[in-house]
Predict the structure.
Amino acid sequence: MLDYVIRAAVAITTASLLAACSVEPWVKPYERANLADPIMSFSPNPVEKRYIDHIYEVRESARGATGAGGGGCGCN
Amino acid sequence: MREGAVVAVTKRLLSLVVLLCISSAASAALLPEDRSDVMFHRYDGGGVEVDGPSILVRKSIGQSVSVSANYYVDSISCASVDVMSSASPYTEERTETGLSVDYLHDKTMMTLSYTKSDESDYLSETASFDISHDMFGDLTTVSLGYSVGNDDISNNTDETFSETAKKQYFRVGITQILTKNSLMGINLETITDEGFLRSPYRSVRYWNSATGAGGTVSEAYPETRTSNALAFSVKYFLPYRAALSGEYRYYNDTWGIDASNLEIGYIHPLEKDWTFEVHYRYYTQDAADFYSDLFTRADEQNYMARDKELSTYQDHTIGVGVSYEFKPEKWQFLDRGSFTLAVDYIRFNYDDFRDVLKGGGSVTPGEEPLYSFSANVIKAYLSVWY
C-alpha cells in the first residue's frame, strides 16, 4: 500500500507542475483576510492538538493522516 | 529523429515548468509564530486516570529558522477492565520530550524533528523529516513527510524480557484555498510496523462449552502491520466572523481493521476577548481478523488477541472550549496571551468485548454484559506570544 503514497506524491507533484502552466490564482492575496483569521487555522493550538491526537491514538486502532508531522505513540 | 525531438520538447517543457514555479512567487511563506504554551491535561475514564503537564516553546532565530521544544508528562493510574481482570492496579509515569527545527527558504519549509518517549517498560524514539511548498500564488501547499521510530519494549514482571519494534511513516498532504472564505486539506499516511506489536501483559481467554475446559493464554500477534489513512478536512468562514470545520478520515490495515471518523466543529469569537468552541466527533471500527472476546481453545488460531482496541466498537466525543485573550501590561516583551479551558466527554460502546468483572463468577463465559465506559478529558492551558 506504500505504493499508493508514492503514486499520490508523484501524482500531486506532476499535477501541480502541470497546473503551474495555466493556473491563475482565483483568490487574490488582498482577498485572504478571512482566511488569515486565527479561527480559520486547521490546528490553532498545537499543544492541545498533540494531546488530543495522543488520546485517540492510544484508544483507537486508526492512526495517521492527522495533519501533524512526526509520530510515535510510545505506548502499549 | 523522432526520439530526439521528444527529448528536446520534454526538456523545454521542464524548463518552462521550473521557470514558472520559480517565478510564481507572490508572497513568501511564513515561519510559525513565536509562542509558548503551558498545559495541564487530565483524562479520567474506564478506571484509568492520566494527568500531567505539557510545555511547548517555539522561538524563531533570524528570518528563516524556528526552533520548538516540547516536554510532556503522563502520570498514569491504571485500574482498567483489562488490568483488573488479570492483574493488580498500577501507577507509572510516561515522559515525552521533543525538539524540532523549521527552516524556511522562500516558499519551502523543511522540518526536522526528534521525539523520545520514556516509561518504565517502553522506550520509543522517533525522527521525522517534513517538507512543504507553497505554489500557485500561495493557493496550494503540498507537503511530504517521513518518520522512523524504534521502540524497546520490556516487562516489569520479567527482567529477562526484551523486544523491539520499528515503525515507519510515509505521508503526503495538500492544503488548498478554495474561495476567499474556505479551505480544504487532504492527507494520506501509510504506517508500517515490524517487530513486537502487542502488550507483554495481556491474555486471551478461551472456554469450550462442550467440555467446560477454559483458561487464559498470552496473546499472539503478527509481527508486521501496515496501515493506510486518508483524511479530508474543510474549513469555512461564516459572514459574522465564526468558522465551521469538518473532517472525515478513512482507515484500513493489514490486520483487517476498517475504521472511519467524522468530526464537525464550530468556533465563534463572542466578544472582543472571548472565543467559544464546540465540536462533535464520531468514530467506528471493525475488529481485527484475529480478535475474539472468547476463543474455544488455547491454540484455536496462530494469532489471537483480546485487546478491546482491536474489537468492533464506536465512540462519540462532544467537547466545548472557551478562551480568554489578554494583553499582559506588566510584561512588555509579550505581544499577547490567552487562557483556554476545554472539556471533552467521550463515550465508548463495544460490540464484542464483554465486561468479565460484571460476571461475578456465576455467568457463563461469553454471556457477560457488553463493555462500555465514559471518559472526561480536561485541557487547561496558558499561551503567550512574543
Notes: The longest helix of chain A spans residues 2-19. Residues 70-76 of chain A have pLDDT under 50 and may be disordered.
